[in-house]
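Known limitations

Files may contain more than one protein. Parsers should not assume a single record per file. Below, a two-record file is shown to illustrate correct handling: read the sequence, read the token line, then continue until end of file.
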Amino acid sequence: MKRFVCRPGVAEVKTTKGVIRGYEYDGLTIFKGVPYAEARRFHRPEPLKPWDGVRECTSYGYTCPIAVPRRPQGEISVPHRYWVENEDCLNLNLWTPALDGGKRPVLVWLHGGGFSDGSSIEQVAYDGANLARRGDVVVVTINHRLNILGYLDLSEFGDEYENSGNAGTDDIIAALRWVHDNIDAFGGDPGNVTVFGQSGGGAKVTTLLQSPEADGLFHRGINMSGVIGPILADANGSGREVAEAMMAELGISTVREMETVPYAQLRAAYDRVSPALMVQGRYVGNAPYPNRFYAGDPLLNGFRAESANVPLLVGSVFGEFLGFCKMDGFEPVMTDEAAKAALISLVGSEIEPFIPLFRRAYPQRPLQDMARLDTAFRAPEIPYMRMRSAMNNCTYSYLFDMTFDVNDRTVAWHCSDIPYVFANCDLVEYTHQAGMEKLEQQIVDTVLAFARTGNPGNASVPAWAPSTPDTENIMVFGNDTHLAPNFDHELIEKLDPIMTPVIMKILKASMDEIQH
């Protein structure tokens, strides 16, 4: 029987601001909804005020209000949890094997959803218990401000709003400071912190590398499907135009008044004025804002030299967003001739030159899978890896290459690798097929090895050298996990110019089907 204890005097920890109480369950001590900072709208986070007594932290905290109301869908592919939204959302959740000063590696999860959506608990697979238990590590998941609450530049309206365009990143840095100042009391090592995240969460790993105030607060990074080129590109331009348009809609004249407008009204005003500005290519927020606090997208500006020695593990999955989308003319089983005809119809040009490249890169896959091969993520990832690996000897690459028994047959989609990373395959249905346990073990062992040492190599996978500018040593995780240096470079380079525009067109027509 699993042991559960939740009562005063048990699982109590003195933090720098006061005592909090969690509970014990199945060999772990768990804390939920732990506050790490507080913030006024559009302002930088501030330290918590100390409290007396014991603060109960046994329930998940508020999550940030999001841009579009959630509509349950796609739960087979990405099982979700929904929670109460409120701007008072600067809180974190923590799983630890013991409150014993054990100096365990700490893994801090940054959720997906771009910079506009998501939460620390949104996906069922985000639960940190199994990873903490199996790896003897401390797992932390955090909430922070998003969309116009977290990424709306108002710097022209006064110094107090100087970094409002990166308030959400400031929140993440505040959470990392909380970890640095408190994690030893939870059995963790403040000198061994790995930030890891997927999609927007992976992009947030990059923003931390580019943020001077994050230096020293984390020591390794895992970027899963987070090199996304223009989809999550930096915002440019001034926020004055969109802010003044919002104020006109709201019948107010100052940003200070905007601070007190109920979020629903603020969001409605933004939704009314932003589409026209977006069409004109004007600034509308919702992405990191380059300034003295954030050095900008490294593909455009280079990596900060101060981050050079932070080990990085970077990768993506075979299908990414295309794993969700319907494609006319394609079936789970097709002849090569039928697949060729469907591919020509899809891309609007001859595909014969790409076929031998695809077969060489993916000899086990049928030809029709070329229609599902992601280039939108993978194409910018290659120069990202080349640039990063030129700085150090601790940059590693992977690809998640699976096919699942969903709707007869579906290639790995965006988020499909998350349950493996968290050792949570038992919590979702689609992973339950031949080879699940072996692949989960390989991926969990990789994450844990990297968190402990900065090197993902371990006994469950083949020998794995770091990448160099000339050789991207890609660990291909799947039914036959293997190291494949540069295996897809020529294919991606030649396919990207015709495939990425197709992907963007499909995404525009299928956004309701995309999950995170």
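...continuing to the second record:
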Amino acid sequence: MGFFFTILALVVALGLTWRYLGSYMAAVFEGRVHFLNAIERPIYWLLSTGPSKEQTWKRYAGSMIVFSGVSLLFTYAIVRMQGSLPLNPQHLHGVSPALSFNTAVSFVTNTNWQNYAGESTMSYFSQIGALMVQQFVTPAVGIAAAIVLVRGFSRRHSPTVGNFWVDITRCLLYVLVPIAFVFGLVFVAEGAVQTLAGTLTVHDALNGVTQTIPRGPIGFMESIKQLGTNGGGFLNANSATPFENPTGLTNFLSIYLVLSIPVALTYTFGKMVGSVRHGLALLSVVVILFGAVVGLTATAEHQNNPAVAAAGVHSSVGNTEGKEVRFGDTSSALFAVASTSTSTGSANAAYDSFTPLGGMGLLTGMMLGEVSPGGVGSGLYTLLLYAIIAVFIGGLMIGRTPEYLGKKIQAREMKLAGLGALVMPIAVLAITAIAVSVSAGRSGPLNAGPHGFSEILYAFTSQGNNNGSAFAGLAGNTPFYNVVGAIEMLIGRFAIMIPALALGGALAAKDVVPESLGTFRTDNAMFVGLTMAVVVIIGGLTFFPAISLGPIVEQLSHGRFF
């Protein structure tokens, strides 16, 4: 019953968020929100820009790449030199070049993959001045890219798609910073640690053991970690530790926060294109896919772990291996699916200890392209790429030139949508193949056999989708995994985002074709089903052979599927 009421409360909260936060974000990006003008205008003055100085999609993409490049160098420099910087009560040394590069790329691409234990590797200055900064700005970049694609549908004969600097400024000032601040207060009030006092040493007089307890500015980092679908925690145990996730309320809020902006952006889309029904159609795709993955994962985790059962240990409360007793198996499954389906990557359980089918559920959310609902911004523009492919197929079915929201989908649009949809599967599968073919890659997994393959496949699926979660059995802090993983994270971010920006520019330059009796409807159940089919078929056809070698073989090796 507790799981049922959690789902009910989540649906109600997200329903209200979809309507009101979605409408608010539409007003923000249409320039109708001005209550922070006193802060906003000086920023534009310093950048020599403003709302009236709009950019073509190429200049917009150029600004985004320059900003991301500077952010990468800035983050790398701080992490690399942290030993000589202030706010380092742990007296930690600078991080190695390969790990610094991987970490900088990870946080700049909104992946937050961590090949290190935060409390024993990163100083307070690195956590606050570099990593937490990126946890704010990289979600803003993703949302800005999604808004460009939305403007492509809403504008006519427009050579411009907005201004990158204006969009990320508005996103930070009016959306991310205020919401993260409010929920940061809640996390701290609930018991999340927030201090600059350094570690605490405790001596137990009964057994003579001395323990060092890590502390730091954790509470406020926790709120933006979830809100921005970042996932990178201050502590190695992430949301499984009470220092980051102290109560049932913070656990629920974590799930809510990772879903809130991606879900609300579907309403923002509908509002900005002048048809909320189209936003509702996209939301329907998201809800059905998310519900299916939650159902699969929760069912699998409510069973005994086959490996544990084979050792003669049976449980009446599901697979509790690697889970916090205070959360249980079904709540942990819901948290895990919310995290892996939103490119967040945070964890309140050990994903490597999930059942084979439970782990497959987590992989599924990522392999479908992170569209159920995906990361902040990245989920929406990727889902729109799939929707355009669905429109093209629908147009072929009825013998008409495909149209979406009155914009003709022609060869250029299809090439860009196809590129954006296929680059992730190609990168994940190609790099996974390399990893299992070389000794540096094969030395990473803790386990042999199909589960060891799953650990490698999960790592590169996570990084290619800018998710950041992991099967912890993989030893990732090696030169091979640091460098190759960083390259894949860059591909997974920018090789999809740039085609999405180009598509927004191409659509913005088009006129709107009047609707007629032969127009293929894109706001009804048929379109929802077709879009879902495109998502599932692309994910299924490309990843099923790899899944078969990992989780499916592992499950069948125990003599049963469920």
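Parsers that stop after the first record will miss the second one. For reference, the second record is described as follows. The chain has 19 helices and four strands.
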